[in-house]
Amino acid sequence: MTKLNIGDQAPEFTFPNQDGKDISLSQFEGKPIVLYFYPKDDSPVCTKEACEFRDKYQKFIEAGADVIGVSQDDTKSHYKFTSKYSLPFTLLSDKGGKLAKLYGVGKTAFILPGRTTFILDKNHKIALIHSSQFNSHSHIEESLKVIESLKNK
């Protein structure tokens, strides 16, 4: 598994979103990205995290960034999850965990997919790596602070 560090170039990817459309990192060229990996659609902590990203999404947009969530759930599950909670951002289906491995997102207790957030600057270099399996709130607050700090760079 790859171990990424702050300052590294984020690996390029192409994966299907909740609508089955392929999304690539390069489509967001020149734009900071919050790329957050989470374990499971509709689970309590993941739902709380997604809804908080939803509630603060406008702040991310105003800071010039976009939000992309990633889990191993399929596109149909993502579609239901985004519809149920009115999530305005992209969710990518990482069946088999290839994208998680590419970004070095491991599993907790060898079974539960990790909860890790990467902040990518406008050149898609990693500006922050934040991991906390059970504290979803810290991901959003930390992400917003870093995105705000990148706004003038």
UniProtKB/TrEMBL annotation:
<dbReference type="GO" id="GO:0008379">
    <property type="term" value="F:thioredoxin peroxidase activity"/>
</dbReference>
<feature type="active site" description="Cysteine sulfenic acid (-SOH) intermediate; for peroxidase activity">
    <location>
        <position position="46"/>
    </location>
</feature>
<keyword id="KW-0934">Plastid</keyword>
<comment type="subunit">
    <text>Monomer.</text>
</comment>
<keyword id="KW-0560">Oxidoreductase</keyword>
<dbReference type="Pfam" id="PF00578">
    <property type="entry name" value="AhpC-TSA"/>
</dbReference>
<protein>
    <recommendedName>
        <fullName>thioredoxin-dependent peroxiredoxin</fullName>
        <ecNumber>1.11.1.24</ecNumber>
    </recommendedName>
</protein>
<comment type="similarity">
    <text>Belongs to the peroxiredoxin family. BCP/PrxQ subfamily.</text>
</comment>
<feature type="domain" description="Thioredoxin">
    <location>
        <begin position="4"/>
        <end position="152"/>
    </location>
</feature>
<keyword id="KW-0793">Thylakoid</keyword>
<dbReference type="InterPro" id="IPR024706">
    <property type="entry name" value="Peroxiredoxin_AhpC-typ"/>
</dbReference>
<dbReference type="InterPro" id="IPR036249">
    <property type="entry name" value="Thioredoxin-like_sf"/>
</dbReference>
<keyword id="KW-0049">Antioxidant</keyword>
<dbReference type="GO" id="GO:0045454">
    <property type="term" value="P:cell redox homeostasis"/>
</dbReference>
<dbReference type="GO" id="GO:0034599">
    <property type="term" value="P:cellular response to oxidative stress"/>
</dbReference>
<keyword id="KW-0809">Transit peptide</keyword>
<dbReference type="GO" id="GO:0005737">
    <property type="term" value="C:cytoplasm"/>
</dbReference>
<keyword id="KW-0676">Redox-active center</keyword>
<keyword id="KW-1015">Disulfide bond</keyword>
<keyword id="KW-0575">Peroxidase</keyword>
<dbReference type="InterPro" id="IPR050924">
    <property type="entry name" value="Peroxiredoxin_BCP/PrxQ"/>
</dbReference>
<dbReference type="InterPro" id="IPR013766">
    <property type="entry name" value="Thioredoxin_domain"/>
</dbReference>
<dbReference type="InterPro" id="IPR000866">
    <property type="entry name" value="AhpC/TSA"/>
</dbReference>
<keyword id="KW-0150">Chloroplast</keyword>
